[in-house]
Amino acid sequence: QVQIEESGGGLVQSGGSLNLSCTTSRKIADSYTVGWHRQTPDAQRTLLATVTFTGQTKYADSVSGRCTVSRDNDANTVSLQMDNVKPEDTGVYYCYIGPSLGHPTPSWGQGTRVTVSS
């Protein structure tokens, strides 16, 4: 069973920074894409930020320019840093590990809740 442990959620003041990290039992080097998704109180879970094995990143428009996603294939860790957080960044953040030959379906963490106070 795949284990994914997320950390870094909690209460953040508006304008501050957020640092999330997830460590997984999967070998993320085998997954072309890893990243983070977010579910806000009034929306479905949506893609927030991803990074490919080649280092190409993709961000949702709502966080582009203030968010950095990274991966450490040796440590099987995926990280997310967000600056200038806003109340609308409040939600549950899910670590995402894309499919690989050994895992044909993606893996998700249980989610870490982030609340941004105004």
Structural class estimated from helices and strands: mainly beta
- Major sheet details: 7 strands, mixed
SS elements, strand count:
11
**Helical region count?**
0
Task: Tell me what the structure shows.
This protein is mainly beta and 118 residues long. The chain is 0% helix and 51% strand. The protein is built from no helices and eleven strands. It has strands spanning 4-7, 10-13, 18-24, 33-39, 45-52, 57-59, 67-72, 77-82, 91-97, 107-108, 112-117. The strands form two sheets. Strands 2, 4, 5, 6, 9, 10 and 11 form a seven-stranded mixed sheet that branches. The protein is globular.
Please outline the helices and strands.
Layout: E1 4-7, E2 10-13, E3 18-24, E4 33-39, E5 45-52, E6 57-59, E7 67-72, E8 77-82, E9 91-97, E10 107-108, E11 112-117
Parallel strand pairs: 2-11
Antiparallel strand pairs: 1-3, 3-8, 4-5, 4-9, 5-6, 7-8, 9-10, 9-11
Could you give a quick summary of the protein structure above?
This protein has about 120 residues and is mostly beta strands.
